[in-house]
Amino acid sequence: MRYEDIIIRPYITERSSDDMAEGKYTFLVHPDSSKTEVKDAVEKLFNVKVLKVNTANYQGKIKRMGVHQGRTAKFKKAIVKIDMDPKPIVYLEKGGKEKAINKKYKTSIEEFGVGQ
Questions:
Q1: For residue 29, is it within any domain?
Q2: DSSP symbol at 84
Q3: Residue 84 has what pLDDT?
Q4: 116 domain residue, yes or no
Q5: Integer Cα distance of 92 and 100 in angstroms
Q6: How far apart (Å, rounded) are the C-alpha atoms in residues 43 and 108?
Q7: Does some domain include residue 20?
Q8: What is the CATH number of the domain that holds 25?
Q9: Along the 116 residues of the chain, how does pLDDT read in single tens digits?
Q10: How many structural domains does the chain have?
């Protein structure tokens, strides 16, 4: 499955808007996707470092209109926590010298909520 197929769209509610200040972003994702697939898709599409992924499956609610009864669509929601303060990676080179690499990760997802 391609990364574009895993992330369907952002899920914007009052609670998800408040969680954005803490680095938590909510997406509707493909129902068959796993947490690792969601993590990889968000990291590649938005160039951020994902720390944690929580998912929830929702079944459709039973609704009725007059004498007709049916269900709303089922969906899967993923809450993704990103790294708000990326630290450089430090490792030892030959000869025991320390070397630090700054990762070029974003600290927020600017595309989130645009056009909604």
A1: yes
A2: S
A3: 85
A4: no
A5: 9
A6: 12
A7: yes
A8: 3.30.70.330
A9: 899 999 999 999 999 999 999 999 999 999 999 999 999 999 999 989 999 999 999 999 999 999 999 999 999 999 999 988 877 778 888 888 888 877 777 888 877 654 44
A10: 1
Give the CB-side neighbour count of residue 73, counting CA atoms within 13 A: 6
| Token reading at 19 | 């969680």
Helices (H), 20-113: 35-46
Q: Which domain holds residue 29?
A: 3-101
DSSP sequence for 87-105 = PPEEEE-TTS-EEEE----
What value does the CA radius of gyration of the chain take, rounded to a whole number of Å?
Answer: 19
Q: What is the pLDDT of residue 32?
A: 95
What is the rounded CA–CA span in Å between residue 36 and residue 38?
A: 5
30 part of a folded domain:
yes
How many other C-beta atoms can be found within 10 angstroms of the C-beta atom of residue 62?
A: 9
For residue 87, give the amino acid letter: K
How many whole angstroms separate alpha carbon 72 and alpha carbon 36? 28
Q: Is 46 helix (H, G, I), strand (E, B) or coil?
A: helix
